[in-house]
Amino acid sequence: MTQSPTPLHWKLVIDAADPHAQADFWAATLGYEVEDNSVLIERLLGFGAVPPEITVESHGHKAWRDLVAVRHPEDPYDKESGTGLGRRLLFQRVPEPKTVKNRLHIDVHTKPGQRESEIARLTGLGAAVLREVKEPGGEWVLMTDPEGNEFCVH
């Protein structure tokens, strides 16, 4: 008898030119929280384990310069590191810009009758509408986040 594998913990990692701006956009979009890793960072700085130049000030506390995550506010997290243990998106700085269509994207589902107001809210946060899609299987709006990553609003 084959045993089922133990479910794996995962996160979605998104390349970014400005991880902190992307994290702020997606936290506002999804109602998530930007993770606060300052306790861990301050501890590592105090031990001399990491150099100060790999950190920045963000939201009034120390943060990693080149990566930041957002997490669902109801999911558990490690209080010593600030790292989410559930649904989360991690944004990491990369040197190259986005050049082609995403192979993986996020779908945002609105409440019935709320799609247009949600699109207006997201546009106000820096998203852009690419096109409206109407197919036999459904309707949605294809949008891009501030760095051009595609996502759909249903």
TrEMBL record:
**Pfam families cross-referenced by the UniProt entry:** Glyoxalase_6 (PF18029)
Q: Which domain of life is it from?
A: Bacteria
Cite the InterPro entries for this sequence.
Answer: Glyas_Bleomycin-R_OHBP_Dase, Glyoxalase_6
The Glyoxalase-like domain is annotated at: 12-153
As recorded in UniProt, coiled-coil segments are none
Q: Which SUPFAM superfamilies match?
A: Glyoxalase/Bleomycin resistance protein/Dihydroxybiphenyl dioxygenase
Protein known as: VOC family protein
